Automatic annotation (TrEMBL):
Its EC number is 1.97.1.4. Its cofactor is [4Fe-4S] cluster. NCBIfam families: PFLE_PFLC (TIGR02494). This is Pyruvate formate-lyase activating enzyme. Residues 19-303 form the Radical SAM core domain. It comes from Kiritimatiella glycovorans. Residues 50-79, 81-110 form the 4Fe-4S ferredoxin-type domain.
Amino acid sequence: MEARERTGLVLDIHRCSLHDGPGIRTTVFLKGCPLNCAWCHNPESISFQRELYFIPERCTACGACVAACRNGVHHLDPATGEHAIDRASCTACGACVRTCPAEALEIKGREMSVEEVMEPVLKDRRYYDRSGGGVTLSGGEPMAQFEFTAELLAAARENEIHTCLETCGHAPAERFDAILEVVDLFLFDVKGLDPDRHKANTGVTTDLILSNLDRILKRGGHVRLRCPLVPGRNDSDEDLRRLADLYRRYADALEGMEIMPYHAMGEAKGARVGRPVPPLKAETASEEQKTRWTAWLREAGCPV
Ligand code: SF4
Ligand code: SF4
């Protein structure tokens, strides 16, 4: 197989993004993630499979999807109009999506080749050139579709397009070694530094993540830390102190640090792909909380 024919599962491609690295960027969201963060704001990116996405607010209970599906996935209660979905029987064929007049159904995830992804990426080259932007691979977790990610990065490099890779850091170390030369900037997530709470919040401990961060920096990789802060989950003074310690340990090598205040939008999206609402019970971060976090970290010497 030619490298450019390699395919991967893509959730979405956003052009003209301003928040995923420097300048104006095209962000490619790959589907599938080895973590299961309690606060995930993109729950439709967690599964490595294509999946049915149902927006109940749009459903008019017309019944077209019931008739279209050969697998008996959709059920409408004749009395209440309540719409139940038997996801275990769904093959994500898309037949019901095409018949829904209310645009209440979508299939999340599309198998795309490197060439197909690069087509929209290359269209915005003039914006990248003017703004210092480029392409960002995000997710899900791009390192979990490693061969595809490596080919995308190589294609961007061949076309002299700046590359960012947003990663949770939880992947075999050799994979980071292999792409170090074709990543201009890692946007490296730090979701907390208490190993036990990190495991409770994300499903994995911090060991591999922190050793990969250390390894990338020692090998000359360019890294900006990205720290999601979730009220009551990872924003205590002790959590902030540990973050500041981490930043100071690598301050000479790091290229900045950002905080990413929690927003509760993920809960509704999780239900749309049939994921149970996470038992997070956190509110969207308030302005007061953001101000406290920023002031605390700045006081401790972090450039947030
Ligand atoms: S995607 Fe296909 S299998 Fe799944 S509910 Fe729709 S028609 Fe049925
Ligand atoms: S086709 Fe669309 S609007 Fe009609 S019942 Fe199915 S999901 Fe609802």
